[in-house]
Amino acid sequence: MFFRKSSPTQPLKSLPYTTKSQTLSKTKETNIINTNRSIKFTLFTSLFIASWFLFLHFHHPTTTITTTITTVKATATCDGSTPPFYIYNLPERFNVGLLKNCEKLNIYMNMCPRVINNGLGQPLSKPSWYATHQFLAEMIFHARLENHVCRTRDPTRAILFFVPFYGGLYASSVFREPNYTLRDSLAVDLIDHLQSQRWFNRYNGKDHFISLGRTAWDFMRSSSGSDFGANILLNMPLVKNMSVLTVERQPWDGENQYGIPYPSYFHPKTKNEMLMWQNKVRQSDRPFLFSFIGGKRKGLGKAKIRDELVKQCGESTRCELVECGGGNSKCHKPMEVLGVMMESNFCLQAPGDSFTRRSTFDSILAGCIPVFFSIHTAYTQYDWYLPKEKNMYSVYIEEGGVGKKKNMIEEVLMGISSEEVEKMREVVISLIPRISYVHPNVSDVGFSDAVDVALQGLSRLVRENIGKAEI
């Protein structure tokens, strides 16, 4: 079963495609050239500084880990669409202190190259592009809030209170810890610390929030079922009073959990950078009807759908397949991945180790219409970020029907008219600003990014839960 109908025409709240002073189109590229000339000196200066820091990075490896956040002078004021918020000054052991042992933050890999630049990772060849790890949203979120124009250092003015706990990094560092008390210790210590804070006790934490770079499942260990390394953070009663931002919420028991985008690779510093990228994506030639980038998974449930996607894509001349695993390095090169997606009209998004995938947000960044096979990959996750009318930006094919016909996926996608594909792609492109994390050193970039969208959603929640009269 799949849905496909004419897309509604109501506008989305996203960065406009054109402005009075700058039209981004194939026939008016001179405007872009003129704009580039006007910022050439600024870009040259920025690149020189960036090159100098890269030189320091490679010649002084002991200084590569960012343990403090660079503060820049705000160039704008909070306009009222985003609420004023206060950031707790937690003891370092709850956040940046963890980075001192960055090589032990993940049992599968050395995270030191990945946590540099406040979680953006190593810079790529293009300015504002980084090899960002999918599980570092908590670091990026924290760094972005530090320089946000709506941050207040006066807790009496705050609508929201942010608790900068790097819970995902801590969780991944103790996945194999057999002693549950030790595995839970830092999370328990955090709540003990918050209970001693005046502002937490005012509303029992209802105006407080945390952001987590890993899925909610990693913080919801239960007494029943197999243990896969989770701790109990999200099961603690006081945490249930707070709002929890996570890259994947638990669809059934996560009432206080709200999905935020996995970080992709683009972290713009200006509105112009975003406009130019949207235009590049819009103009991209897309010779393939669809593509699939991913590997097979062990286990009957996960393997079945992925095996079928690999099979149907591999057998189709209209599909570009990049099968990960077995040493295929293309899957680990950001620009290679995006290149495949920018050549495709549709990108297949099968569940991975859990329901969601970073690839969903990579595909949106590339202007590729996502195709889902589980409602929990996006539809029950990211209400603040994606249109409620799913057919505006995506295609849904029921997982159980995929293998019933040899080329079912291709037939479904071929049945969507070129006019409808163009409409859907425009919606996808309009979503790019709100699912992107702008560079943390920018105080105000001129549009709402993923952090702004979350703050606005949290503000609505707090006003509903506590009441306007009390705030």
Automatic annotation (TrEMBL):
GO MF annotation list: glycosyltransferase activity
User: Principal place where this protein is found?
Assistant: Golgi
- Tell me the superkingdom of the source: Eukaryota
- Ranges in coiled-coil conformation: none
Give the subcellular location. Golgi apparatus membrane
Domain Exostosin GT47, by residue range, is: 86-408
List the Pfam families hit by this protein, alphabetically.
Exostosin_GT47
Asked whether the UniProt record includes Hydrolase among its keywords, one would answer: no
Q: Which InterPro entries match?
A: Exostosin, Exostosin_GT47
Tell me its family: Belongs to the glycosyltransferase 47 family.
Q: What is this protein called?
A: Exostosin GT47 domain-containing protein
